[in-house]
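Reviewer 2 asked us to include a model.

Predict the structure of this chain.
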Amino acid sequence: MIFKRSTKCSLKFCTQAKRAKLKLILNEYSNVVNFFIDYFWNNNINIKKTELLKPIVDLPKTWFSARLRKVAAREAIDMIASSKELKDIKPKHNGKRMCISSTIGELIDSKHSKKYDSWLQLRSIGNKIKLDLPIKKHKHFNELNSSNGKKLNYYIISENYVQFCFEFDTKEKKKTDGELIGIDTGINYLASLSNGKQYGKDIKSIIEKIKRCKHGSNHQKSLRRFLKQRMDEVSKEIFKDNSNIRLLVVEQLKQLNNKTKFKRRLNKNIRRSIGIWTYRYWLNKLKQRTERNRVSFRSVYPAYTSQTCPKCGHIDRGNRIGEMFKCLKCGHSGNADINASQNILYRFLIGPYGADFKP
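Predicted model (structure tokens):
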């Protein structure tokens, strides 16, 4: 199985002169892309990237080189294809970023600076412009670069960062001989697994610290970054302790909004402090882990999973009291979050796609 991951490296070491030059390039790039969008769209031209020959590439009046004009034309083709597939409205490039190929940019090591370790050299821009952007590789970049993936030969550049993309081949997903796991996401424990294990007990204290901070303050931003770091660590712990997972089932991301479980679990102040991004980041992180470990990833509608008895199926709000679950009908009791994770797994297995994962 092929999947892609990306990471962003800051351009904070750029001088004002380099930033001004980069902004000039981004503005002109946007103009050229929008020219090609108008040309292809208004003339109803359906063209492939391999058909971008000189007569078309030379159409816009710009100081860009032929190479960069062709790159801009390719992005215009991609934007039109995406727009027609989704809403059939003529797209418009906003000038905030550009995607360049290895024919324009090259990442090389820097041996003469302690602040940064690489240069992204931009050449063949046009008008005799050359631009070297200083890059400091961070932990995430080095992790992706040192694993079994390969760095793709294109770069997404904005005024503030450069985005690098990596491709990984993890072969086929596990089909037999593996554990089936449901995960319930909560506040007392970030992850409660259907096999009875729980992870991330300190998440609640971190969220409470975020809640006490002034909204938008630097300290709150720092704590939010720490929260994301803990989520990364917990996701690693889960796959380290449960190395034989074949299927992971979570709650549907689109259902975790202010009107459903997200609102019921968090009070107004905490929702204001962390936002729905917390759940989105966490579930996406779990999905990334499954892709790397050849594990199937599925999601189910989460309604009533914390109120349903896994033994008799009785649903009642009174079944759950805080962290404890006790069925009012059959008397079954246990941890409420683990109970919810078992219901999440069971809900998928009895569904139309669960037959392929039956033990």
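The radius of gyration is 25 Å. Confidence is low (pLDDT under 50) at residues 255-264. We have added this to the supplementary material.
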